[in-house]
Write a structure and sequence with these properties.
Distance between the termini: 19 Å
Strand content: 5-15%
Largest sheet: 5 strands, antiparallel
Number of helices: 18
Radius of gyration: 24 Å
Protein name: SET domain-containing protein
InterPro entries: H3K4_H4K5_MeTrfase (IPR050869), SET_dom (IPR001214), SET_dom_sf (IPR046341)
Strand order of the largest sheet: 1-10-11-5-2
Pfam family, one: SET
Number of strands: 14
């Protein structure tokens, strides 16, 4: 049987507020080791314990009742730290690896926290009555140049895999009326209809844009308003149409006695501010308070994982962990674009402007950011080079997205992304279709999708003339997702030769995907761990069933079966090393 060795939750990005299309709910970033693939033939019987299983029930907001809640978070941290005491030694994969910021020097020992320390950390955050379940070695800085002047920084040197925060959503999910549509006033009604609406609205007054700041800005003369406030607040709220929905929401809030924290009735401006706060701060899985303080980066130091059900309980918790070494005082950031997470610079620029009203800039500004972040080291160069197309060109863009060619056609990267979007929709449709074993139509559709994705990867690499382009990583990852679905749902009708054909066709892509991800993300990233696992499992099958055909691929550096066997072993050791860094979750 084909089994996923790491049934972990996916990584989460911000709803398109942080991750969705403009004005649409954000998407939860990543499959905790990402929604990537897994062709697993064997299952590790030494599965690590689920760190979420120790969570208890919620408590009230007063300090006394927070004691058991913080104790639970502390219990989680202790179990996490116990797995970090003697990490397995790093085993080289033979690929280019650059650990940003580590410089080869030692980092601080595993972070350990007492109950008193957790209380102190929670008291330094904004919502003292709604602290996270666990707060790691992080500080909230209120003097940053970006993110509304607020954001997290590391309070000490921390290694990759460090647990930074565990939090449950203030509001879980989104209303059925909102799903599949641009973010609108339906989501504000969803807040008002919540049984804790009054508390929710009071907490949201401190989310960007803060209620106090909004009121102050609209009382200023136009010439006195800061440019960033005009763009992110005044213009955005002014563009919201005044319609009957606002009147209906105001009537509902008055009837239900839902007021602001100063006991004043809601106004049209309050309703617009709430919608804007949802847009700027929401995730696919809902609205969080403390997670909302993580700022965006083009090279994020952390990833936020989607929440998982806690056993039989319906409670949901989410965690953020570092994906590389982070120095004391360095910003702890996530990517607001995680679904998909591999998109071209031009597309990222458009989405971030449409959704958040900040501009990551053109080629010059992007290069300047990377130079300041990496000091021209290998990984920084790889991130930049992952955007280049034929002849080393960095595609032109504006806040409105990719700039068309002189003949009026869309850029090559845009066409590839559209194809990937369509194929990913087809993959999601197949995943939601009833199981396909014995169903010839399902088999044919899945086989056709796998072959189409392989062809798209092959043709795109030829057209882009850059085998490590960021869009090729997405294409290869989707190809592996299609293979996983094929092997899982159609195993009863799949012959040994067909299995070998699929894996042999995919092998060059898996190898290139691992190399690209390692160059761009570093060896400690969960995406890299998952691809190491996929490559090891594919090699294992082919060494057993089709060794001669595996050698016939004639991939560089893989001239003997011993070479393939050594690569399989290296990949498994790297996966095992990463499991120590980021303990697996059920």
């Amino acid at each position: 049987a084909i089994i996923r060795a790491d049934p972990v939750a996916a990584v989460e990005g911000v709803p398109c507020s942080r991750e969705a299309p403009p004005l649409a709910p954000f998407s939860d970033t990543y499959a905790s080791p990402c929604p990537a693939v897994s062709i697993d033939i064997t299952f590790d019987s030494h599965e690590t314990m689920d760190p979420f299983s120790c969570f208890g029930v919620d408590s009230d907001d007063d300090d006394d009742s927070n004691a058991p809640r913080n104790g639970v978070g502390l219990s989680l941290a202790e179990r996490f730290n116990s797995k970090r005491q003697n990490p397995a030694p790093s085993t080289s994969t033979g690929l280019v690896v650059e650990r940003s910021g580590s410089g080869g020097s030692e980092v601080a020992s595993a972070f350990r926290s007492s109950y008193e320390d957790q209380v102190q950390r929670a008291s330094s955050l904004i919502w003292r009555s709604r602290p996270p379940l666990y707060c790691g070695p992080i500080d909230l800085c209120r003097t940053l140049a970006e993110g509304g002047n607020r954001g997290y920084v590391a309070s000490q040197d921390v290694p990759p895999g460090t647990l930074c925060m565990v939090e449950e959503p203030l509001v879980a999910g989104w209303s059925n009326a909102q799903m599949g549509k641009e973010l609108g006033f339906e989501s504000v009604r969803y807040l008002l209809e919540n049984q804790n609406a009054r508390e929710i609205l009071h907490c949201m007054e401190e989310l960007h844009p803060r209620r106090e700041a909004v009121e102050s800005i609209f009382n200023l003369e136009t010439t006195e308003i800061e440019p960033i406030d005009k763009v992110q607040i005044v213009d955005m709220m002014s563009d919201m149409t005044e319609d009957c929905q606002i009147d209906s929401l105001l009537e509902y809030s008055t009837r239900k006695g839902i007021t602001n924290s100063d006991n004043t009735n809601l106004t049209a401006r309050d309703v617009k501010r709430l919608l804007l706060a949802l847009r700027y701060n929401g995730f696919d899985s809902g609205l969080y308070l403390n997670f909302a303080m993580f700022n965006h980066s083009e090279d994020p130091s952390c990833t936020k994982f989607r929440p998982m059900e806690d056993g039989a309980e319906s409670r949901r918790y989410s965690e953020a962990r570092t994906v590389r070494h982070v120095r004391k005082g360095e910003a702890l950031t996530i990517s607001y674009l995680e679904n998909p997470r591999e998109v071209s610079h031009a597309t990222r620029r458009k989405i971030l402007w449409d959704q958040h009203r900040f501009d990551i800039g053109d080629e010059g500004q992007y290069r300047k950011f990377l130079d300041s972040s990496f000091n021209n080291n290998d990984r920084g160069n790889c991130i930049f080079e992952a955007e280049l197309v034929a002849d080393g060109v960095f595609p032109l863009s504006s806040r409105d997205g990719p700039i068309k060619n002189h003949d009026g056609d869309g850029p090559l990267t845009t066409n590839i992304e559209k194809s990937l979007d369509d194929l990913e929709d087809m993959l999601m449709e197949l995943k939601s279709t009833p199981k396909g074993n014995g169903n010839s139509s399902y088999f044919d559709r899945t086989a056709a999708l796998e072959l189409t994705l392989w062809e798209l990867a092959t043709v795109s690499q030829s057209r882009l003339e850059n085998k490590h382009h960021i869009l090729l990583s997405r294409c290869r990852r989707l190809h592996l997702d299609a293979i996983e679905l094929f092997l899982t749902e159609c195993s009863s009708t799949l012959k040994d030769k067909q299995l070998a054909d699929i894996l042999l066709r995919a092998m060059p892509n898996i190898k290139l995907l691992l190399e690209s991800q390692t160059k761009r993300l570093g060896s400690d990233h969960p995406d890299v761990a998952r691809t190491n696992q996929d490559l090891a499992n594919a090699i294992q099958v082919l060494l057993s069933n089709s060794p001669k055909r595996l050698l016939a691929l004639e991939l560089r550096g893989m001239g003997t079966l011993n070479d393939w066997s050594r690569m399989e072993n290296r990949c498994r050791l790297e996966k095992k090393r990463n499991r120590v860094i980021v303990p697996a979750r059920r």
